[in-house]
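User: Predict the complex with zinc ion.
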Amino acid sequence: MRAMVLAKQGEPLKQMNVNVPVPAAGQVLIKVKACGVCRTDLHIIDSELKEPKLPLIIGHEIIGEVASLGENVTKFKIGERVGVPWLGYTCGKCKFCLSGKENLCDNAKFTGYTIDGGYAEYTVADERYCFRIKGNYSDEHAAPLLCAGLIGYRSYRLCGDKFRRLGIYGFGAAAHIIAQIAMHDGKEVYAFTKDGDSEGQAFAKELGAVWAGGSNDMPPEKLDASIIFAPVGALIPAALKATEKGGIVVCGGIHMSNIPEFEYNILWEERTVISVANLTREDGDGLLEAAPKVPVKTIVQVYKLERANEALKDLRAGKVHGAAVLKID
Ligand SMILES: [Zn+2]
Ligand SMILES: [Zn+2]
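Assistant: Here is the predicted structure with zinc ion placed in the model:
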């Protein structure tokens, strides 16, 4: 099969022909139809995430069709449409798994990082971590739900439910999905982009944000909650300054640059800063149930599998409108 392979961190992906994987017990073989391109993929390539399987097929926002079944597969049938997220395996035995926090599992495996992912014609996945995809989403429009959507949704849920004004820092793939859910829930969305990114600000307003500005601008009203999707540590003090007493700042990324020193004053008055790590299957069920009801519309920029390096380059340069997705035919 054709695959885009990361042979060594720091290098571009290489187009290669590799063997189609064979599903082990409990796994399904999936014919990949679309795979989202996520900022985490850049963190892996750039060595900001340090322990990838190598060589590695990256990609953890996979939509495909079940092509064959390993032994003891019961959840899916051949021909069914499935989604594969970042969380690929948990042990079910550690203290985190046993307390409903499988996202923090000590022995977790991650799709497109510690196990092969979806930048390829086929992949295998443990059926227990795969989702059914509802709604009228095409494969490429469904793909961004699997990470941008799921991690965004977990970040959003950590904001609590009794708030009105939600700030979103970094208005890319995750933000454009979560903004639609938040507005559907009656929240006011305040969008923060790179300073001077008038295109990004216009995009946020088109989606219904009540206000859009640069990341160091002060919103007209203090925020009750904010989510930071951009991997920039300096946004934590910036968001705290814009946050109301008792408010929360949720960091949605897997990696962030260092946080500059800041005055205790902006954290005081019971403001909270929290990070999000990975996802639970419950987050996945929640988002995939909620998205078609809104209905969330994903905006995608589609690339062929062979052009994965170009998609990654555009994502790095902030040139992706909505979410970048590889289409595999
Ligand atoms: Zn565990
Ligand atoms: Zn991701």
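The chain has eight helices and 17 strands.
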